[in-house]
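User: My collaborator sent over this chain with a note saying "see what the structure looks like." That's all I know about it. Can you take a look?
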Amino acid sequence: NQADGQVVEVCVTLGSHQKTIGESQTWITPRFIIDDLGPFDLDPCAASPQPWPCASEQFTDRGLTRPWSGFVYLNPPFHRYEVGRWIAKLASHKPGGIALVHARTEAEWFEPIWDKASAIGFLKDRLYFHYPDGKRADANSGAPAVLAAFGLDASMRLAASKIPMHIVTEWQ
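Assistant: Without extra context I'll predict from the sequence alone. Here is the result:
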């Protein structure tokens, strides 16, 4: 982005449209998602600080370039030119994991989900993310979200979940 002739670099996450440049872009996954779908071994893009951990191991920097291990929870930094790299890495990671992303099914970055996900949970309600202090955001994420499952364990976790969603397991 450019503002007054200056280049401004912005790191955004799933709920980023709610904030303007210069304000926080850190959006914490609601705890009920982690409690319902976990436990997770790795969160490769964990916030710091955070009110609750999303996984037993957390990367707060360089998560995309570091090796991943175990079952992953991914709420990637949402930048339309970078989110696809995160999704592609999870799609090829074994034993798999679950990603929380916008339901931008037409976007190029969504292709690894169409190509390799074992299930997609379309959330029935808009999410309210949390701030790093744990307080719930005042506004919802502003867009529908999905939980994309990669691998059998991930699909089984979605199927057993109490999170209100419609789960799709077959598509063309």
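A starting point for your reply to your collaborator: The helical segments are 31-37, 83-92, 111-116, 152-160.
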